[in-house]
Known about the structure:
By secondary structure, the protein is of the alpha+beta class. It contains 9 helices and 18 strands. The chain has 3 domains: 21-132, no CATH class; 138-149 and 294-498, Rossmann fold; 163-292, no CATH class.
Amino acid sequence: MLRRCFRTIHFRSQGQALVLFAAGLIGFLGVVGMSVDVGRLMWARTQIQAAVDASALAAAQSMPSTSGATSKANEYWVDNSSFIQNAGTNVQFDVTFPPGNKALKVVASADIPTFFLKFVGLPTWHVGASGDAASQVLDVSLVLDISGSMCWGSYPRVDATGPMIGPGRIVDAVKLTAAIPAGAAGSSITITVNSTAIYNSAIAAQNNSKFGYNTTTPYWNYTPSNGRKGLIQIDSELFLITSITNGTQMVVKRGQQNLFLNTTPPSVAHSINTQFWSYHSTCLLSAPATTGPYDVFATAMANAQFFVTLFNPGYDKIGLTSFSSTSTLRRGLTSTFSTVQGDIAAINNPDGGTNTASGIAVGRQVLDGAGKRANAVRVLIFLTDGLANSYCGSTYSAANYNTAACPSAGGGADGNATATLAAYKEAERASNGQILIYTIGLGAYASDSLLKRIADGGVAGVGPCQNNQAGCRYFKAPSVANLGSAFASIAAQTHIALTN
């Protein structure tokens, strides 16, 4: 009897353990299942909000076109919500345009099926997100450097003194109509071009409707002051014209020396449509038959006009300042953008020093002047190709920069301490007035350090540009070919704001 009793107790213990194990396993699987489903919920919430935000910001760039904004929002939603679309049911996405300041609202929702919780009566999680964005109302002050370096600074000197050598007017660009093979320095070849506008003669009798060519007085025989007659440049190679076959064909001698650098560029091959350069004595637009402008100035002004078109006159206002040794307030804030473009086209004489502080100060005055709006984001766009070298007054005083007038205008070497300090002080003053400064450094001689600090508000070591962080408002344009993209990037950045 005792033996049977022990056996019964043993079998009952085994059964209880099995029941406890099964119950524990079910609880463990429940916890695991809940963890999986909760993880899916958290990922769904994160992705749907991120997708909505991306859609709202992208759509705002197409405002005020509601159809364009809707299309862009849907494009970004599809690209950024793959989990929601693949795993979810009852997926909803909608773009609406509430009345107001170029605003839009993006709303999305979906049901995310559960794997395990459906067994306890929870078959789906519901997730949703919304995002509001607005293309901001802007007051924009465009400040353009028109100092002499915008004409001369980007092109080389090839004689010990005398005029620079450059491409001349864009509309009169002279190009090869047949390629030139590589050859020996000093050899003579015949080349052909598309135009007679090769040489910039300072003598009126030698000019035709473009500049330089005349059948009775060959333009190539004209000797510029302290320069070699008949000198032209193709790519980096220098040539001397020795005779003219007709207006578009000539005999030249290859491989001439650069007397300024004391080097002789190699006689390499040159492709068809390569542009000719020649001597230019001035950079005035006021006498286009006989002078430049050099390409850097003309293209910079053309890009500034393009920049104006990137804004909407129904919402935004733009003002214009130009500066060299002093500054000129050319237009206060206006929504008549064609007038601003006309003001840019009227700038015809790049000359003088670079008074960076005065340019910033007058740009600030535009934003503080007539037409200023309390609800607008205030933006100053500053374009320059060089270092600060001019200033107002012998030492910095804010009073010297309260009007467009520049009392006791002075100057010194590029980057001198007085001009540089004044530039920083005026940048700080603008920043303290809730003005966002965007700077563009054009060409090889623009100072990255100067323009980064100005974009950061003038204070040393403070700001994203000086600390190589995201959000820097300085744009480098190594040549005029990069100006369009710099202006477009600034326009895109200033327009968009995620408001919720």
